[in-house]
Design goal:
Length: about 270
């Protein structure tokens, strides 16, 4: 179960190369976040509202023509890791031109389905800045925006820090099959874990009351590995240079930035850019 597949290693390499290109194109400034130099902040450039809306839906694996009734989404960065959508010559239907997004497991989302703002997080359970976001920033966003129906969050796996990262991603997906993904997610990030061994993961599973027999079987299921690899490949094809990375209504935000940075991006998204 802990052996990394060749496709995973290839995708991580592609992600590193593509991420370097993204950083060069966007000329983004490095953040001073603790322990994770790959987290970067990308300024956004303007494009059409419909284009950005299609981008946001595509990042979640949803139909860009299906409106949630929320505010129009802001533009994705020009030349950034997320491709934009353009209308066909004969109609106004928006067509996603980026990599095909894998479907999102509903168990890996939280918040109101009618929320006008969506945040897609690409995370790694071994990433110290992902842990920092989960411990210090996400709880504030939850009380201010998720619990009030303004934001809906989605998780995508981007396990780029070795075997422990992949092992933890598989375990979290196994927990999602018992409807306990977010409890497992929060428990993994609750403390400092230099390694995420089988014993660590089973201990967390037992702590939150999972059926351990089913948990062990599910995390070894090849279909679970395929969905993790699918998210990993998608993030690599987008060219995301590190974790955590966020799409806020299609606009890129890198790193565990201060709460104020997320608030600014959320409010901008609510206003339609």
């Amino acid at each position: 179960m802990t052996k990394e597949s060749p496709v995973s290693r290839r995708r991580v390499l592609l992600g590193s190369l593509a991420g370097a290109a993204v950083v060069a194109v966007l000329a983004v400034a490095a953040l001073t976040n603790q322990g994770e130099p790959a987290g970067r902040a990308a300024p956004a450039a303007a494009s059409s509202r419909d284009s950005a809306n299609a981008s946001a839906h595509a990042s979640m694996g949803t139909d860009p023509s299906a409106s949630t009734g929320g505010s129009p989404t802001p533009a994705a960065p020009t030349g950034g890791p997320e491709a934009t959508a353009t209308p066909t010559p004969t109609s106004s239907v928006q067509v996603w031109e980026g990599p095909t997004p894998p479907p999102v497991d509903p168990n890996l989302s939280k918040g109101s389905a009618q929320a006008p703002v969506t945040i897609v997080e690409f995370g790694d359970f071994k990433c110290p800045n992902c842990r920092r976001f989960a411990q210090r920033i996400e709880p504030v966003l939850k009380s201010r925006y998720l619990d009030t129906g303004i934001v809906r969050m989605f998780w995508r796996d981007y396990p780029i820090r070795g075997r422990d990262s992949v092992r933890a991603a598989l375990a979290a997906r196994a927990a999602s099959r018992q409807g306990r993904f977010w409890e497992f997610h929060d428990s993994l990030y609750a403390g400092e874990r230099p390694r995420l061994t089988d014993a660590d993961l089973r201990s967390v599973a037992a702590k939150i009351g999972l059926d351990l027999g089913k948990f062990d079987a599910d995390r070894r299921d090849e279909s679970v590995r395929r969905v993790v690899d699918g998210d990993l490949g998608f993030a690599a094809e987008l060219g995301l240079p590190g974790t955590p990375a966020f799409l806020i209504n299609g606009e890129v935000l890198f790193g565990a930035q201060p709460v104020a940075a997320f608030e600014k991006a959320i409010e901008k998204a609510r206003r339609g850019g």
